[in-house]
Amino acid sequence: MAAYGLANLTFVSLMVVWFAIAHANVVEVGGETGWVVPRDRTDDVYNHWASLNRFKVGDSIHFKYKNDSVMVVVEEDYNNCNSTHPIFFSSNGNTHYELDRPGLFYFISGEEGHCDLGQKMIIKVLDLPDDISPSGSPSDKALSPPPPLGPPSQPAHSGTIIKIRDFNKMSSAFGFFAVMFSGFLLG
After folding, report:
1. What's this model's pTM, rounded to 2 decimal places?
2. Are residues 66 and 109 in the same domain?
3. What's the domain count of the chain?
4. Per-residue pLDDT tens for 50-95?
5. What is the 3-state secondary structure (H, E, C) of the chain?
């Protein structure tokens, strides 16, 4: 009987983890090219990419790179491409970073000269439901100006987004039945 209760507890725990994952995105920084020095050597390539995406608390970003690094820094260090006091540092070539709070996150390459060549990015993280702002009006993305009409320096959407959130309806229904089933088993 104890094994039966343990199985139910494990099942309920897995459901909690599934719900947490089902409401988050994992976004591949830079899409196919990954985290590299931009070809056109401008400061806005990654910021343009970030502006095409909507980030919220709980989302993660994935950096794919070779012979480089990723740093999270404060705004002043971002503006000056100063890599001496990072908040976060990784150089493993396959870095996941969770956006764990609302606000701005400042990313730079830690390789000498790369930040000055445009390998840096600011991500704005929202702490709002997907479709409404605190005033109840449409999301701020809908109110933002349209992108420039000229050809972009990168494809219109250079990131690969793994839309785990698209499974919400399925996971909600599954979760409902799972909770009902576990209540039936426990009761």
Report:
1. 0.60
2. yes
3. 2
4. 998 899 999 999 999 999 999 999 999 999 999 999 999 999 999 9
5. CHHHHHHHHHHHHHHHHHHHHHCCCEEECCCCCCCCCCCCCCCCHHHHHHHCCCEECCCEEEEECCCCCEEEECHHHHHHCCCCCCCEEECCCEEEEECCCCEEEEEECCCCCCCCCCCEEEEEEECCCCCECCCCCECHHHHCCCCCCCCCCCCCCCCEEECHHHHHHHHHHHHHHHHHHHHHHHC
